[in-house]
Amino acid sequence: MEYEFDWVDAFTDVPFGGNGCAVVHGGADVPDEVCTAFVRETSLVECTYTGPSEIADIRVKYYLASREIPFAGHPTLATVVALRHRGKIKDGTLTLETGAGLVPVEVSGNRVSMTQIAPVIGEVVPREMVAEVGSIAAEEIIHPPRIVSTGLPFCITVVRDRAVLERVHLNSKALNGYFAHIGLTETDMLEPYWITLEGATAAGDTYARLLLAPPSPAEDPFTGSATGAAASYLWSEGLIEGPTYVAEQGHGMGRPGRAEVEVLGPREAINGVKVSGQGAVVMSGTVYLP
Predict the structure, then answer these.
(1) Does 187 score more than 70 pLDDT?
(2) Residues facing residue 239 across a β-bridge
(3) ∠ CA(83), CA(219), CA(287), 5° rounding?
(4) Widest pairwise Cα distance in the chain
(5) What is the pLDDT of residues 203-249, one digit of tens each?
(6) In terms of DSSP bridges, do strands 206-211 and 153-158 run parallel, antiparallel, or are they unpaired?
(7) pLDDT of the residue at 180
(8) Is the distance from CB of 247 to CB of 93 less than 8 angstroms?
(9) CATH number, domain at 103?
């Protein structure tokens, strides 16, 4: 079968920055095993497959190299930029049907604002356990790590400074113990999301990393879903003074990414998170899937 696709770098306004995603138009009915094989073929972290929806403007399915996931941030932005690039949508508002629910989106050229769903704030995870996953000392984590989801759950972990963040290294054995402790598996959530309260540049307010286990690439350049979860955590825990800030990620990989973030609602009653950024189309063409 032939499908049109666009390769979009998300959370950047230039190619080769931010995080790439291949958007397969009309591919929502492609079998799971083919979708994951295509992700592996691209060596990207995620790809999306679109299709018609009865409850929204368009349906989006999200895949890692190993499985389907309900939602992802940078692929959402990439998908909307690809749809806009092909003239399938215009500037304005639309709603996406995802596995995590309906996601409202605002579009203006290559700039996209998505409103992620109200956060589910879960359990606190022992610092010592999370620190072992990242190969750092427990005292280098400055606030209790906690599982938070705005469509995809992450353990949000705030480290002392950028130097600590740059030393984080994934311990696969400890990761397995971490999943077992919280009663979830890698199919239910992703690895810990490491963040520090200083930017990679003078323009940023936070800087983050997400290290991944195989078969995914070793690190995610920019994680839009975790950005929403982290914003909810930082606001609800009183770690940021105001609900708006600039999030940065990917600079250590040579793929700098940036998002403008706004937490919606008071600290004790967050009703959503708006994550905004730009996207750059890198290539377009036809993919032949079995």
Answers:
(1) no
(2) none
(3) 35
(4) 53
(5) 999 999 999 999 999 999 999 999 999 999 999 999 999 999 999 99
(6) unpaired
(7) 87
(8) no
(9) 3.10.310.10
Q: How far is C-alpha 160 from the geometric centre of its chain's CA atoms? A: 22
Query: Are residues 196 and 252 both part of a single domain?
Result: yes
Query: What is the percent of the chain where pLDDT is above 90?
Result: 95
Phi, psi of 167 (to 5 degrees): -90, -10
CB contact at 8 A, 146 and 121: yes
- Asked if 83 and 209 sit in the same domain, the reply is no
- At residue 138, the pLDDT reads 98
72 and 190 within one domain: no
Residues 6 or more apart whose Cβ sits within 8 Å of residue 215: 40, 65, 66
What's the number of domains the chain is made of? 2
Whether residue 171 contacts residue 135, with contact meaning beta carbons closer than 8 Å, is answered with yes
Q: Are residues 60 and 185 in the same domain?
A: no
- Which structural domain, as residue segments, surrounds residue 139? 120-275
Which amino acid appears at position 67 of this protein?
A: R
Task: Name the DSSP letter for residue 118.
Answer: P
* Both structure tokens of 46: 């995620």
